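Could you help me review a protein record that somebody else here produced? What it holds is a sequence and that sequence's fold in token form. I have pasted the whole thing underneath without changing anything:
=====
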Amino acid sequence: MKSEQVVPAGFMQDAKGRLVPESMIKPIDLARDQLVKELVQKAKSLRETMKAFAALSFGDVKAFVDMSCEQYGVTIGGKKGNITLPSFDGKLQIKIQVAERITFDQKLQAAKVLVDKCINEWSEGSNDKIKVLVHGAFQTDKEGKINIGRVLELRRLNIDDEGWKTAMQAIGDAVQVSSTKEYIRFYERVGDTDKYQQISLDLASM
């Protein structure tokens, strides 16, 4: 591992690793450097605060759920462990949601062969839109990855064909849940409506 270069007093290191005397650096460049470093340091500190807040929030919600289950002998939570906790007046909500990361195993290749077979058999008089959708579903991106959403969309097509049904079953069998991740989100009701707006903790959306 390459060790960091020690920058002597009175010098600054530029983007190419060269040592430049501070006296030769323009005041505007010095001011920009100071501004960027100060704000990035504050951003890092804020990130640590948010991580600590998330850990505290997860812990508090799960402790409440455990307490409720023990006290009333009930299970709180929905599908796949999702939890919604409303305030007493219904104006606020906290949700813990579980997101699954889906991948495909080798059975997807078999599914593609079956789908291609269907397309070839339907080549005369088949719907061109379905052809485009099918061929697009198995295209890969720049990283060579298949768009999972596009492939799963094929299963929503209502096509009464045994070969197609077999191909869709192969796609279903190819689905693998590689990992899960929990998210905690906070909501407040919009006025007197039944709609809730998420309290954004993302700087980009503020």
About this structure: The mean pLDDT is 84. Strands lie at 11-13, 19-21, 83-86, 92-104, 175-189, 196-198. The CA atoms of residues 118 and 161 lie 9 Å apart.
